[in-house]
Write a structure and sequence with these properties.
Blueprint (H helix, E strand, L loop, with lengths): L1 H56 L7 H14 L3 H20 L7
Length: 108
């Protein structure tokens, strides 16, 4: 009987250890998911900040919100093709580069 009690004790210890390892693994997965959520939240906040900076770079910070939204909606409606968007991107990148180089005034 002694050896079967010892065997049951070993099984109980192994079961306990397995439960501990699974709990540790679950906690690690939860920490990783929380890190991913926090990174996504930070990236979204950064992107919103960058978009606001673009409004200022275009000299449109004094426009009412409705006009800014309408201008963006009109752009999207009027440039569905890749070529039009590519031309707009090139012009916008050139404007930002000129601003960065100090060649353009910050206000219109």
């Amino acid at each position: 009987m002694g050896s079967s009690k010892q065997l049951y004790d070993q099984i109980a210890q192994a079961t306990t250890r397995l439960a501990q390892l699974k709990a540790k693994e679950l906690m690690a997965a939860q920490r990783e998911a929380a890190r991913h959520r926090e990174t996504a939240r930070r990236n979204e906040a950064l992107r919103k900040s960058q978009l606001g900076a673009l409004v200022f770079a275009a000299g449109c910070e004094e426009l009412p919100d409705g006009e800014i939204i309408t201008a963006l909606l009109n752009y999207v409606a009027g440039h569905p093709d890749r070529e039009g968007r590519a031309r707009a991107r090139t012009a916008g990148d050139a404007h930002l580069a000129a601003l960065a180089a100090g060649c353009l005034p910050r206000k219109h």
